[in-house]
Amino acid sequence: MRRSIASRGFNISYRAEGAGTPLVLLCGWSRWADTWWDAGYGDRLAEEYRVIAIDRLGHGDSDKPHDAAVYEPRLIVSDIVAVLDAERIESALVWGFSMGAENAAALALLEPARVSALVCGGNAPVPSPEGRRERVLSAAQFVSTVEGMEAALRSGGLTDEEVVETLAHNDAAALSASMAGTVDWEPAAVDVQAPSLWYKGSGDSPLSPDDLHLAERLGVETHLIPGADHHGSFLRADDALTIVRPFLERHGS
């Protein structure tokens, strides 16, 4: 069921299905709540959990402002909290993919009582490589036009059909702003209190030896989806669920 709430004067849309332990799903850049169902996660998870999948500001059916300042991660966290409050959820399992993993980690850092366990797919709250700020701003500029966004989506491995659907559900200037708004946020896994799991595709940018050492020191589970690139590691729902489901079951009571 589609629902919406007001947060900071913006409309935030989300999809709520199922019953049981709350599970919040946060999608990647240019994705929206329904893509969790399209890829094969939503119905299966809703058999066991109360699934709340959120269209981040600037995405899907949520409002799409063009000001990068409104996408600062602390403000995006406030939108997620507003959804939790509207659904009367005190604490939830939280699973984010890519940009959604950044949002999930930010929620765990800024509102630790709201996150009972954390899953980060396609991204992890580890220190950013040098030059990240410049790369993000350059990428944000590139996708600020429909032509640039289409090129970026194709280079990310999306099919022609997926590109057309993504363009129909989004606004290039809003997606550009949502990317630019993240440039000054630095993740800090050492401050995450919730039990955590990180996974990536083996063909994606790898976790470094330092990242893996940090994960081991913090007791974070790490996994790879063999042969999957970044987008492919989201599309391979069977593999991702095989990794994540046991973790959710352990921490979902």
Could you walk me through the main structural features you see in this protein, from its secondary elements to its overall organization?
With 253 residues, the chain is an alpha/beta fold. The protein has a single domain (2-128, 186-251), classed as Rossmann fold (3-Layer(aba) Sandwich), CATH 3.40.50. It is built from 11 helices and 8 strands. It has helices at 35-38, 42-46, 73-86, 99-110, 132-142, 146-155, 160-169, 172-180, 209-218, 230-235, 237-251, and strands at residues 2-7, 10-17, 21-26, 49-54, 92-97, 115-121, 196-201, 221-225. It has an 8-stranded mixed beta sheet with strand order 1-2-4-3-5-6-7-8, sandwiched between helices. Strand 1 and strand 2 form a beta hairpin. Helix 3 crosses helix 4 and helix 5 (132-142) packs antiparallel against helix 8 (172-180). It is globular. The mean pLDDT is 94.
Largest sheet: 8 strands, mixed
Counting DSSP E segments of at least 2 residues, the number of strands comes to 8
**Beta-strand level of the residues, as a percent range?**
15-25%
**Tally of structural domains:** 1
What's the tally of helices? 11
Could you give the distance between the termini? Answer: 24 Å
Mean pLDDT: 94
> What CATH architecture do you see?
3-Layer(aba) Sandwich
CATH topology: Rossmann fold
Question: Any low-confidence stretches, pLDDT <50, length ≥5?
Answer: none
Radius of gyration: 17 Å
Give the overall silhouette. globular
CATH top-level class: Alpha Beta
Main structural class: alpha/beta
